Backbone:
């Protein structure tokens, strides 16, 4: 059990994601999400779908989720290891524009997400107990390591909900 983050452990915006996680087991959520059925139900053709002209394709959404997970996991590692230097902001739109995600197959995106998630789980499972409450600054906001675990799980849950409601 990893207690839920308090409001002082992440910028208020991130509680949009933290609040998506049910209970006090973000690692259980992270593990369950690897097998998310919606990922295997989307065809290569459907993965290029956009629900509006100016919106990301489903491939771009999963690429964003994977890139964001890498970013959040790096932040968790940085804070867990006690580094004090603040980390910069992450511009999701700049990252998405540079990824060329629609040229990567859906199957490759799903596999990449799975591998990144396994790495994230390994990082969190091997943290010493005291690391969970360590904190640092990213994007000019203070975050704890445990907030990052909840953010990663909640960010994925948020985007799966968006895919189900707007794309499928």
Residues:
């Amino acid at each position: 059990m990893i207690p839920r983050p308090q409001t002082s452990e992440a910028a208020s915006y991130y509680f949009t994601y933290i609040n998506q996680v049910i209970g006090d087991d973000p690692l259980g959520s992270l593990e369950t999400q690897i097998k998310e059925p919606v990922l295997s139900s989307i065809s290569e053709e459907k993965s290029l779908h956009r629900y509006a002209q100016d919106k990301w394709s489903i491939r771009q959404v999963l690429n964003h989720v994977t890139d964001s997970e890498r970013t959040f996991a790096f932040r968790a590692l940085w804070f867990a290891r006690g580094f004090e230097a603040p980390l910069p902001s992450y511009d999701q739109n700049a990252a998405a524009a540079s990824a060329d995600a629609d040229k990567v197959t859906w199957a490759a995106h799903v596999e990449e997400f799975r591998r990144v998630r396994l790495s994230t789980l390994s990082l969190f499972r091997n943290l010493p107990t005291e690391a969970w409450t360590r904190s640092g600054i990213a994007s000019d906001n203070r975050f704890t390591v445990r907030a990052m675990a909840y953010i990663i799980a909640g960010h994925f849950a948020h985007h799966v909900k968006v895919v189900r409601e707007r794309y499928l």
Notes: Residues 58-80 form the longest helix (23 residues). The chain has a mean pLDDT of 97. The first strand starts at residue 135 and ends at 138. The CA atoms of residues 108 and 114 lie 10 Å apart.
